[in-house]
Design a protein that fits this description.
Helix content of chain A: 25-40%
Number of strands of chain B: 14
Largest sheet of chain B: 7 strands, mixed
Largest sheet of chain A: 7 strands, mixed
Order of helices and strands of chain B: EHEHEHEHHHEHEHHEEEEHEEHEHEHH
Chains: A alpha+beta (about 450), B alpha/beta (about 325), C mainly alpha (about 80)
Number of helices of chain A: 11
Oligomer: heterotrimer
Distance between the termini of chain B: 54 Å
Strand content of chain A: 15-25%
Structural class of chain A: alpha+beta
Number of helices of chain B: 14
Chain lengths: ~450, ~325, ~80
């Protein structure tokens, strides 16, 4: 039995509103399927589920606002016995068997008494010896003995072993379902420390490979996952159409960033003659649908540069920096009506330029429509913000915790430039870096901007 | 004749000598204190700890007893009740079984049963442990059994400093205190630190700080555990913290749990049998208080579940050894 | 396509991209890119849809002409 809970989509989220369910009880779902839309202060986000199985019960109605971590639905994972409601029309839905002492249970087994059918006359509905004796069929039921399994060990049984309770009719019934003590087949084997770290970092254990005994997820595995590609985060939620709430949420995050992160700032002006020239040539030959905007070039270069300078690509968590092996580039997208989200383009450094362009367009469109995916909202390892389209030449941004760097790009402008000792005019862009001084220093930041500049001189290699 | 040694002399001293000096200091400083046990007087103690004391303090203060543990432990209890401060030496923990009723049902319980009227300020010293081919009946480590009993304090000095300085606060304790001296420690030799002085009986000690795993032990196993820690560092890049429990009852949870919370892994090394032993108690407490900090199951390296063999190589195989401790630590670290 | 038809098309596409575009404040000579705060991706979207709907080719060299409703309509009317 797995619970689908209200995810925390970001360090600052405390509650969310369920907007709509995209599944019904009884639906088959697979890991990664989008099953609900959840609203937060910032945007509406489509939430993926992390189990494959059958939706059993929806616990929360649309429009309900619940704290992060609240169970929203129950999913019976694939392979597990479904709740035995269909098989036990007469049995109380929640109880495995009525309460009784082990001795009474033994007696019932010996007598071949159907425990579910026994009425408990003891305190709290407890089944007493007398109750069992009263319902006993005539003695020596042949099937009772061979079918007997010590159901006194009900609660301690290993998961997924069905418990057979001999009924009066001798039919064995699978009562492994139902009951608060039923172990969950979907429970991830993980050490307590790993579990705690995953919870603190808001990632799901289910997606992590465990290196402990029996495949147990250990703390090192969680840390590796945090650095690795797309740790499966508890899905995030955002809500469009509530600008005040979004403004407040952004403000809180930015305030926290400024409070906790010692920012340092670097700036450089980059000659984009080669880049814009190359782009124009490319676009001349491409249909509109495939044309590249300068932003795509800049983002690719920013991602590649981040790969060259790993101290800027990763997360500062638990007092130390963990570099991420992949570059998932966050792209700051302004939303109409005010507001800002910075979802990730995964593996941005490796995407061919046309694909990065396509992803960028898709991402921005969905971001503006309020239809981001959870993984996009939680995965950025470094973010780029560009106010070039707004006419600003340089932007020094605020880092999104737990990232450690933010790249700012301004408007591409024509400026006088010294070229081979002569004065010319070149299209240039001011690129800035805001970085976390706990994770890197000026020399490192400078290397990044130098790499960015170098990469942009060879656009054909991007 | 033994030579008087000042505590802060820079000459090497043995564990045996340190304990002797502690007793000498106690006998000299408080006339209520006296030592009694089998062969403690003329013979100088079965392990030579009280050598020279009867010559110095006379037969009233250093008393040879008959071969009757139940009798002389009972006498010690009586003396304590009457206002004296006896140090009862039971030759080994193996023989203390004959006095278990006295220790448990009288010494540990009279304060309770008398409604607080009768206290038993008794100190019992016992040699414990295996490794000297004394065979099944004479090689027990039963500290865990005694640590099970409410009403008494159980100590396991593992270092020279503790051997020298644990006796004084033990004698000052108004309730029974049992001091376990592992037989292999008597010849332990070294120089007492210049700042060595009175010690408390309430805290465990981190003998070697570390960050990857907590090796928790006491008494005669401390040496092997420290050696294992060195091997782990040198050969396996594992930085082990070694915690010496010092007091087995009451256990210093704060130090032990604090250590495990930092390292996230624990190995408990105890010469006694693991089933229902001291290691089980420590493991249970770790689970109770540091569950959410554990990254691996708690490991235990204990005596094999057999009567201790007589043959040397079998005996060594039946006891915790450095390779076993190293292996357990590596299992936990993964 | 004539000028009026082209004008209507441009307005329609702009409304798709910016749902609350207010054409009472955006006249035929208003620089709509700034007025509607279109960024490069929005603009690309605009070009794409215009090219598709009008059935003509719009190159990067034409972008400077897509500044006001009037100039955009003129361009489209020329091409179709």
């Amino acid at each position: 039995m797995a619970e689908f809970t209200m995810p925390a989509l970001g360090a600052d989220m405390t509650e969310g509103t369920l907007v709509e369910w995209l599944v019904h009880p009884g639906d088959q779902v697979h890991k990664g399927d989008i099953i609900a839309v959840v609203d937060t202060a910032k945007a509406a986000i489509e939430v993926e589920c992390f189990e494959s199985g059958v939706v059993e019960r929806l616990l929360v109605e649309p429009d309900a606002t619940v704290p992060v971590g609240t169970a929203l639905a129950v999913i019976t994972p694939a392979g597990k016995q479904p709740v035995a409601q269909a098989e036990q029309p007469a049995a109380p839905p929640a109880a495995l068997t009525p309460a009784m002492t082990p001795l009474v249970r033994h007696l019932a087994e010996e007598r071949g008494v159907d425990l579910a059918a026994v009425h408990g006359s003891g305190p709290g509905g407890r089944v007493t010896r007398a109750d069992v004796l009263a319902t006993s069929p005539p003695r020596a039921h042949p099937k009772g003995r061979e079918a007997r399994r010590p159901s006194t060990r009900a609660a301690e049984h290993a998961p997924e072993q069905p418990q057979r309770v001999p009924s009066a009719a001798g039919v064995e019934r699978d009562t492994s379902a139902a009951g608060p003590h039923r172990p969950t087949a979907a429970r991830v084997r993980a050490t307590p420390l790993a579990r705690r770290l995953a919870a603190e970092a808001d990632i799901e254990l289910a997606g992590i490979d465990g290196t402990g005994s029996g495949g147990a997820v250990r703390a090192a595995d969680v840390r590796a996952a945090l650095r690795g590609p797309s740790p499966v985060r508890k899905p995030q939620v955002a809500a469009p159409g509530r600008p005040e709430a979004m403004r407040r949420a952004i403000g809180d995050l930015m305030a926290r960033s400024k409070r906790e992160i010692p920012h340092y700032y670097l700036s450089t002006t980059i000659d984009l003659a080669a880049a814009t020239g190359w782009l124009r040539e490319q676009n001349r030959r491409l249909p509109v649908t495939e044309r590249l905007v300068p932003a795509a070039l800049l983002l690719k270069a920013a991602a590649r540069a981040a790969r060259e300078v790993p101290q800027l690509n990763g997360f500062f968590i638990e007092g130390s920096f963990a570099a991420a092996p992949e570059v998932h580039l966050g792209v700051a997208v302004s939303l109409r009506g005010g507001g800002l989200v910075a979802p990730a383009i995964h593996h941005a450094a490796d995407l061919p330029l046309p694909e990065l362009m396509a992803r960028l367009r898709d991402l921005v469109a969905r971001a503006r429509a309020g239809r981001l995916r959870g993984s996009e909202a939680t995965d950025p390892t470094i973010t780029v913000t560009s106010l070039g389209d707004h006419g600003v030449e340089a932007v020094f941004g605020v880092i999104y915790p737990p990232q450690v760097a933010l790249v700012g790009l301004g408007k591409v402008v024509e400026r006088p430039w010294a070229v081979d000792g002569l004065l010319g005019v070149r299209p240039v862009v001011t690129a800035t870096l805001s970085a976390d001084h706990r994770a890197s220093d000026g020399a490192t930041g400078a290397r990044y901007l130098a790499a960015l500049e170098r990469l942009l001189q060879k656009p054909e290699e991007l | 004749m033994t030579k008087a040694r000042a505590a802060h002399q820079a000459e090497p001293v043995t564990y045996r000598e340190a304990m002797r000096e502690a007793m000498r200091e106690a006998l000299a400083g408080d006339e209520r204190v006296f030592l009694m046990g089998e062969d403690v007087g003329r013979y100088g103690g079965a392990f030579g700890v009280s050598l020279g004391l009867v010559e110095e303090f006379g037969p009233q203060r250093v008393r040879d007893t008959p071969l009757s543990e139940s009798g002389f432990v009972g006498a010690g209890i009586g003396a304590a009740i009457a206002g004296l401060r006896p140090i009862v030496e039971v030759m080994t923990v193996n023989f203390s079984l004959l006095a278990l009723d006295q220790i448990l049902n009288n010494a540990a319980t009279l304060l309770h049963m008398s409604g607080g009227q009768v206290s038993v300020p008794l100190v019992i010293r016992m040699t414990t442990g295996a490794g000297r081919q004394l065979a099944a009946q004479h090689s027990h480590s039963l500290e865990g059994w005694y640590a099970h009993i409410p009403g008494i304090r159980v100590l396991a000095p593992a270092t020279l400093e503790d051997a020298r300085y644990m006796l004084a606060p033990a004698l000052a304790d108004p309730d029974p205190v049992i001091i376990f001296e592992h037989g292999s420690l008597y010849n332990l030799s070294g120089v007492l630190p210049p700042d060595a002085g009175p010690v408390d009986l309430d805290s465990a000690a981190v003998r070697r700080p570390g960050s990857d795993i907590s090796l928790i032990t006491s008494g005669g196993s401390l040496g092997k555990t420290l050696e294992a820690a060195e091997q782990l560092a040198a050969d396996h890049h594992v930085d082990a913290e070694v915690v010496d429990l010092r007091t087995l009852r009451p256990l210093d949870d704060a130090t032990v749990i604090g250590s495990v919370r930092r390292t996230h892994r624990a190995v408990i090394v105890d010469e006694g049998w693991r089933t229902g032993g001291l290691s089980a108690e420590v493991a249970a407490r770790i689970t109770e208080h540091a569950f959410y900090d554990l990254d691996a199951p708690v490991e235990r390296v204990c005596g094999a579940e057999v009567p201790v063999p007589y043959a040397a190589q079998l005996e060594q195989a039946a006891l915790p050894q450095v390779p076993g401790i190293v292996a357990a630590a590596r299992r936990a670290v993964g | 396509m004539n000028h009026d038809q082209a004008m209507a098309l441009v307005q329609d596409v702009l409304t798709e991209i910016v749902p609350d575009a207010d054409f009472t404040t955006i006249g035929p000579d208003t620089r709509f890119r700034e007025a509607l705060e279109l960024d490069s991706l929005d603009f690309l979207n605009l070009v794409e849809r215009l090219a598709e709907r009008a059935g003509c080719r719009i190159d990067e060299d034409d972008y400077p002409r897509l500044v006001t409703l009037d100039s955009s309509a003129t361009l489209l009317a020329e091409r179709t």
